[in-house]
Every structure is written in C-alpha cells, then in structure tokens.
Amino acid sequence: MIKFDNVGLRYDAGREILSDLSFEIRKQSFQFLTGPSGAGKSSLLRMLFLALKPTRGTISVLGRDVASLSRRDLPSIRRRIGIVFQDFRLLDHLTTYENVALPLRVRGRSEASYRQDVVDLIEWVGLGSRMHASPVTLSGGEKQRAAIARALIDQPDILLADEPTGNVDPPMARRLLRLFLELNRTGTAVVIATHDFTLMDQIAARRLILNESRLEIHD
Amino acid sequence: MTDLTHSGDRILRALRFAVEAVARRRRERPTPIVPSHNVAGRALVTTIAIMTFLASLTVGAVTLVSETAAQWQNDISREITVQIIPREGLDMEAALGAVEQVARETPGVTGAARLDDAATSRLLEPWLGEGLQLSELPVPRLVVIAIDTSEPPNFEALGQRLTEAVPQAELDDHRAWVSRLVAMANAMIITGIGVLVLVLLATALTVVFATRGAMAGNRQIVEVLHFVGARSEFIAAEFQRHFFRLALIGALFGGFGAFVLFWMMGLWTESNQARPEADQISALFGSFSIGWTGYAGTVALVALVAGLTALTSRMTVLRQLASIDMLSPVEN
C-alpha cells in the first residue's frame, strides 16, 4: 500500500535526518513505529500522509508514485488514509459529532446518510455523553478518542496514528488498541507511532524502529 | 374588540411559529466550517456597509442627474423662438405677422405668439430702464413657437421657410443650449460611473485582504480540511459562503442607509419647497427625489456587492491554495 525505496530527507542544507529508508506497509498489516525522540518519527509520518516530499528516493502510496502526483490527485488519496495527530487537531468551533463527521461532510455526503454511523462510532469510543460538546471542554483522553473516531469514520485503507494512547489511562489505551486491532482485522493497514513499550508489548506485531536516522525492522 | 383580540392572538401565534421555525432550522443546520463570528468579520461588514452606502449615493446621483437632464431637455424642446433682427426699412409688425403665419402653417407647431411690446419692454427693463419706446429703438423682437413634442416639426425646413418669408428671421431651437446641458449631464454620469467602479474595486481589494487574513487566521482549519481529504473547491466554497453572508449583511445595511437618506432628502425638499435654500436645489434638480431607477439601482448594487465579494473570496482562496506546496500544506 505504501512503499519507500531508498528514501532520504533533509531540511535545507543540513544533514539527512532520515537516510536510506526502504520498507513497505502491506495491505492489512499492523505495525508499530518507534524510536527515541528526535529520531525523525514525525518526519517519517508526514511523508507517509503526504505532507512532505522526500529529498531523494521514491515513495509510492496506494500504487501512485508520490513524485508524479498533482494537487488534484491528493484529496482522493488522502481520503483513503486516516490520520490521528498527536495534538488531535480538532476544530474547536465544531461539536464532537461535527468533528467526527467532518471527513464525510467534505465528501459532500448528506447528513442523513451518515448520522447514525457517526453516533454509533462516537458511542463506541465512549464519548456518547459528549456528542454535542465543544472540544474545548473535553479532557485530553476524550479529545484523543474524538480524533481517532474522525480518522476511522470513513473506514480508511491505512490508519496512521501518532501517539494515539499518549493521553489516556491504561484501560482506555488497551481499549483503543483493541479498536485498532479490530479495524485491522476488517482490512485496514495500521501504523501506530508510539514510545509506549507497555502498549507494544501487548501484542506481537511488526516494529519499525528509527534510530540515528536509519530504520530497523523487526518482523 | 373581541375580533381585535382574536386577530392579535393569531398574529402572535404566527410570529411565534415563524420564530420557532427559524430557530429549528438554525439548530438543524450544521455549524459553518469557517467560524462565522470574529472581530475581522465585523470590521468587514462595516467596511462593506460604508462602501455600499457610498456606491448607492453615486447611483442615486447619477440617476438624478440623468433624469433631470432629460426633464430639462423635454421642457426646452417644448418651445422654440424666432428672433427678428431690425434692419433698415423692415416693417417689424409685418415681419412678426409673417413669421407667426408661417409657423402656424407648419405641421408639428401648436401655436405661435409674438412677445408683445409690454413683455419685450419688461425683458429689457433691467438693461434699458423704464418707459422704453420700442419703436424708437432697433430692438430685436421674438416670436415664441410652441411645439407638439410627440410629433415635432422639421426644424431645418421651418427655419428655411421662415428665412424665405422674412430674411431677418433667425430660428433658435435651443439645440446648442440643450446639447451643452446634455454634455454636462453625460460628463457627470461618466464621472459617477467611474466613482462606482472605483468603489467596487476598493471593495473587491478589501475582500482579497480580508480573505487572506481569514485564511491565515483559520490556517488550522484549512490544514485539517486538507488531511480529511477536502478538495480546494470545497474549502473555497466554505470561505465563499462565509464572505457572502458577511457581504450581504454589510451591503443590506449600506443600501438601507442610502434608501433612508434618499427618502429624507425627498421629504425635506417637498416640505421646504417655498424656502430660498430649497429653491436653490429645486432650481437644479427639480424636486430632489430619486426615481424608481435609483432605488432599483441600489437593490442591484446590494446584490452586486454580495456576489462580487463571494466571487473575489473564492478566487482568492483558490489562488492561495494553489500557491501552497502540494505536498506540504501544513508546515515546513
């Protein structure tokens, strides 16, 4: 689904912060992306969700070479990728419900066609009582769950999550992990960037470990 | 009395129903993706209101001038004059009679009358004093010819026939005077249109800056929309909706202000018709009342300003989005 071939990245004229990355995110695969702070995890994630171009090498996403993509191609590819940001990026003037429904709204779907799905998902992530609350009034964990629900609402082919359990207590972290596994079973490839070894130790999954700008893969 | 109470109740019930229906619609409508209330929005509404007010005044002034010019033209073309220059040996009375007769025989002329001795004396009194004996002085004499405005005569043929009958007769159809008035009115209309174009241009530029400001201020929203797969057209439509709403509110305020001003000026000139200061205005503009074209122009202007704002903001957003690096819409 996503393939990196000899990818390198540098900002301006500095040294390469990512070097010689070659790996593949396969269909229906599940993996953790980990490594110490400053190892380039965020930059790698940004390349994965098409927010950054590599300075060398080739990336192909969902069968398309990133270098050959035009602006007009991006929305249709991004619609197949769900993203959970570490800082949530919820829109504060919309309610929880409207934030979760946003991906469907930008696809031009009528509210009647998705209302029940959104309500069900919000209840599933345990935010049923905060459906019409503003994100400003939500706790860190609640925002996290709302952000996850927004990434999942249109059943993406790939889910990229940056520290998705960073703001929740261990029982909720386990629940979220179960949610990701269930999603993975239904066919979505999942990449979870995390520092949380307790989380990673809970399941035997592939680990992509970034260290000093290079990538080790533990299958 | 009971009937009155009943109909009052009915009106109240209808009003309550309408208010509830509006509130229900508002609740059901999704929140706009571009937040609708902020300080910059209020400033833009005020700017657009002022611009629309000024543009409406220009439209009002242009229609007033063009209608007044048409009225002048109409008034003047109802009459023409023939001047008979006194020359040696001319029998003035006979010449006046001949001119009157030729005029009356011409189709399109409804009447011809000489300015008699008394009227001519009155006309000349400011220059030559009282007790004037016209027969002693070589004073030109006038014949006033009334014209059927729906079927005016051929002025050139009339002039020719008059000169044939009385070589000293000169026809003045006031065309030179009218054409100067029309030229002046046209110049004012062109100036007014120029001012209108400039005001609309300034409005469009204000909207460009406001849209850029709103995009910068709502950067996070634009980023999130990108990540959830929104197309540029969708983002542009959201900003367009936001600015159309602001512009419509501003333009309605501005247009309403102009309406009130037109109406009050009309009332003022009507109620002060006999006073010297109002006479000055009526001398220029007749009664200072904006015709229906002025009001219709203002309504069209409100729609134009709202439409122009929506279009400008849409184009600005699309240009801005196109200038963002395709794969780095968030940060670099």
From TrEMBL, chain A:
Keywords: ATP-binding, Cell cycle, Cell division, Cell membrane, Membrane, Nucleotide-binding. The keyword Nucleotide-binding applies. Signal peptide: none annotated. It is found in: Cell inner membrane; Cell membrane. Pfam families: ABC_tran. It is a peripheral membrane protein. Residues 2-217 form the ABC transporter domain. The keyword Cell membrane applies. PROSITE patterns: ABC_TRANSPORTER_1, ABC_TRANSPORTER_2. One of its GO terms (molecular function) is transmembrane transporter activity. Homodimer. Forms a membrane-associated complex with FtsX. This is Cell division ATP-binding protein FtsE. The gene is ftsE.
From TrEMBL, chain B:
The keyword Ligase does not apply. Keywords: Cell cycle, Cell division, Membrane, Transmembrane, Transmembrane helix. GO terms for cellular component: cell division site; membrane. This is Cell division transport system permease protein. It comes from Fulvimarina manganoxydans. It comes from the Bacteria. The keyword Methyltransferase does not apply. The chain crosses the membrane at residues 43-65, 187-210, 246-268, 288-311. GO terms for biological process: cell division. InterPro entries: FtsX.
